[in-house]
Amino acid sequence: LGDKFFTMASQFVKFGVFVVLCVCVIYFTILLHEKVPVMVARVNTEEYDTFNLMEKLSDETRLIPVSCNSTTFSDNNRHQETMKRRLPKALIIGAKKCGTTALLKMLLSHPLITGPNYETGFFMKSNRYNRGFKWYRGIMPYSSEKEITIEKSPMYFYNQNALERIYEYSRDMKLLLILRDPIIRSISDYAWWLAVKYKGNDTPSYESIVFKNGKPSKSEIITRVSEIELSMYDIYYENLLKLFKREQIYIVNGDKLISNPVPELKKIERFLNIPQYFNDDIFYFSKDKGFFCWRKMNRKTYPPCTMAKPECLSSHNGRKHPNVSSSSLYEVELFLKPHIQRFCTMVPAYVDFHWC
Asked: Which 3-state string (H, E, C) describes the chain?
């Protein structure tokens, strides 16, 4: 009986040691992966297979290989750049249903632009803003000094409290404001509400939401619904100019970004003062989807400028617009016309909206 007890006890101890070792290995693997920022060592593409890259691990840095075939973004001289989480230097502030998601995804394919691929709402949502800038920095991806971190939240444009917080954070912040035809934006907003709130067959018509009696009439328009209120660009742009200078704000033509993205993206590159990367070879028109797709950056492989599989907007973006009667659109246009005209007198000369 004593021998059996000794054997069982010995096996139990061995099993316990094994479990402890496994837990330690998992813990230190996670610790190194999550808490160690990255230091980039740029090496020549041709040398990568034979270059013996030494890892330098500490509490603050780690070495990983980074390079690019493009002469603009490559450096034959080996050097190191400290990688760390950085606060945004530019924000996509709106407008809602004008292509902010498409703009962000396209910009993130640039090798020198990084940022979260979701809406943080940091400056607008007090429960997040009250966590402080240390928390805000913590949700940003790692980047080098040459890269620009960017964030987008399309409701910043409409929220005065958010704009004031942005101004307090950085009075030199660069702002990207993408806008579309206000009438098209209104329909897109309606399509979004149908997809999000009304998933059954009993869906309200555009007229029942926009007009008091459900019938087209300029005098009966409900101004406090997002389909109308958020298309009054002049009101919110005026509030924006009370805090920021015009040269800090670049107005992106959302209609042109969808129909011909490269020229718009090149203008944004100049505004952000970064090397030009976008060209017609990156984008192609998808007949199946009905709009442009692009070959995105694969940052997880070497080199990061290698074109990964093409990326297109998901089914949640670029939704097919529901049918809205021409009489309804006519009445909405009549109501919004003074706001459109006023807005068009406020914008810089480079803005060339067809609806102005």
From this structure: CHHHHHHHHHHHHHHHHHHHHHHHHHHHHHHHHHHCCCEEEECCHHHCCCCCCCCCCCCCCCEEEECCCCCCCCCCCCEEEECEECCCCEEEEECCCCCHHHHHHHHCCCCCEECCCCCCCCCCCHHHHCCCHHHHHHCCCEECCCCEEEEECCCHHHCHHHHHHHHHHCCCCEEEEEECCHHHHHHHHHHHHHHHCCCCCCCCCHHHHHECCCCCCHHHECCCCHHHHCCCHHHHHHHHHCCCCHHHEEEEEHHHHHHCHHHHHHHHHHHHCCCCCCCCCCEEEECCCCEEEEEEECCCCCCCCCEEEEECCCCCCCCCCCCCCHHHHHHHHHHHHHHHHHHHHHCCCCCCCCCC
Mention every residue, 6+ apart, whose C-beta is less than 8 A from residue 261.
106, 278, 283, 292, 294
The two tokens of residue 194 are 């149908």
CA distances in angstroms from 194 to 183, 190, 200, 297, listed in the order given? 17, 6, 9, 33
Asked if 52 and 98 touch (Cβ cutoff 8 Å), the reply is: no
Tell me the HSE value of 126 on the side-chain side, using a 13 A CA sphere: 1
- Residue 36 CB neighbour total at 10 angstroms: 14
- pLDDT tens sequence across 15-39: 666 777 777 766 655 544 443 333 3
The dihedral built from the CA positions of residue 5, 11, 17 and 19, taken in this order, carries a sign that is negative
Encode burial over 256-268: b for 16+ CB neighbours within 10 A, e otherwise: bbbeebbebbeeb
Prediction pTM value: 0.76
Closest CA to 237 of 336, 356, 173, 156: 156
Alpha carbons 17 and 326: distance in angstroms, whole number: 76
What is the reported pLDDT for 128? 96
Q: Does the pLDDT value for residue 310 go beyond 90?
A: no
Contact in structure between 93 and 154 (CB atoms under 8 Å): yes
C-alpha–C-alpha distance, residues 218 and 71, integer Å: 57
| Alpha-carbon radius of gyration of the chain | 26
The reply to whether omega before 191 is within 30° of 0 (cis) is no
